Amino acid sequence: MKIDEIVQLKDAALREAAAAPDAQALEEVRIKYLGRKGMLPEIMKGLKDLDPANRPVAGQKANELKNELTDLVTERKAEFESAGSQSSPGEFDATLPGQWHRLGSRHPITQITERITEIFHNLGFTVAEGPDIETVYHNFDALNTPEDHPSRDMQDTFYLENGDLLRCHTSPVQVRYMETHKPPVRIIAPGRCYRRDTPDATHSANFHQVEGLYIDKDVSLADLKGDLSYFAQQLMGPDVKIRFRPHFFPFTEPSVEVDFTCHVCHGKGCRVCKNSGWIEILGAGMVDPNVFKAVGYDEYDVTGYAFGMGIERIAMILFGIQDIRHLYENDVRFLAQFG
Ligand code: FA5
Fold first, then answer.
1. Which of 51, 76, 168, 202 is the most exposed place for a label (fewest CB within 10 A)?
2. How far is the CA of 282 from the centre of ligand 1 (A)?
3. Burial letters 78-97, b for 16+ CB under 10 A, else e
């Protein structure tokens, strides 16, 4: 091979190596020129047939081809390796180990909400929803809340500039549902609530409740007690008992607070239940006739019960969580325990 042919071959080899799209194509260029049966060994073999005067220059050009091509191949190979790709883009290598993402877990609040929803679903309840931003009418007026009731106070409720507010309980969902549906009604309404409570171990300014509402002809306090007993046993276990304590809510009459026997001491008395044997779980009562009037129901035709429970408090009891703030801090070490 003549000297200028060797130079042309070198140029072609360098161009091909520079244009190789991936490591495999680069290796093919290397083998084509530098491999044992490649073009460079051929050139070397042919040197002896050249005019002795041209041999040294031809040999030098052949060496340049070898050295420059070797350097370029080494450099480009390193580039492909650092780009982490030995294969062409888009090519899938099924033999490589997979990349596993750590699985998350459902938040304890979600888990409890789903469990409560499931239990009431068994009793024929469906899920209803309402807005977090409420009118004063739906949050207070239609729920028979007196003008001077402390919960209406700016100190207790977050008001917006336009006079609306962030609902302080899920009870306005009752009103919205009854406004748009005729009896019978059997709903639960899980959702966020907002209060200007100072955060501590058991209070948060933003927590969750589940509202329940059952309206039909002749619904009685006995239905409330039966359904809540079933709920308590499904949630906490077959030995759990419930008790009603008289209470006051503007939207129910009579009103009760409902306690479950302590899940730790089973009613004997311990530190968790402050030796009473009982744990307060929810507020409830028979829907006040004034609420029926507000939503356009005939208060002489139907009766019903309603209840509202705090989901954080139930999660804390069931999972043994000491401080409600753990539920909001999103510390993965805490959340990972509820997988
Ligand atoms: C109510 O909110 C009534 N709407 C419940 C009701 C509905 C009664 C229907 C009758 C008929 P109360 O203010 O007690 O009631 O709140 C209910 C539950 O919400 C409490 O038992 C508690 O578990 C939870 N809760 C209230 N304030 C907070 C708070 N700041 N942080 C966490 N949970 C709270």
1. 51
2. 7
3. eebeeeeeeeeeeeeeeeee
What whole-number distance in Å separates Cα of residue 52 and Cα of residue 311?
Answer: 97
pLDDT in tens, 65-108: 999 999 999 999 988 888 765 555 667 788 888 888 878 889 99
Q: Please tell me if the CB atom of residue 285 comes closer than 6 angstroms to any atom of ligand 1.
A: yes
Distance in angstroms (rounded) separating the CA atoms of residues 128 and 252: 20
Half-sphere exposure at residue 234, Cβ-oriented, CA atoms within 13 angstroms: 17
Q: How confident is the model at residue 132 (pLDDT cuts 50, 70, 90)?
A: very high
User: Which whole-number Å values give the CA distances from 68 to 5, 11, 45, 154, in the listed order?
Assistant: 16, 10, 20, 81
pLDDT average, residue stretch 233-243: 93
pLDDT at position 166? 98
Q: Which atom of ligand 1 is nearest to the CA of 170?
A: 4
pLDDT band at 272 (very low <50, low <70, confident <90, very high): confident
> Do 192 and 131 touch, CB atoms closer than 8 A?
no
**Residue owning tokens 């009418």:** 137
User: Is residue 306 lining ligand 1, measured as CB closer than 6 Å?
Assistant: yes
pLDDT given at position 89:
60
- Per-residue pLDDT, averaged over 201-216, amounts to 96
Torsion of the alpha carbons at 313, 314, 320 and 323, rounded to the nearest 10: -20
| The pLDDT of residue 105 | 87
State pTM to two decimals.
0.73
146, 250 in Cβ contact below 8 A?
Answer: yes
Q: Which atom of ligand 1 is nearest to the CA of 212?
A: 9
Mean pLDDT of the chain: 92
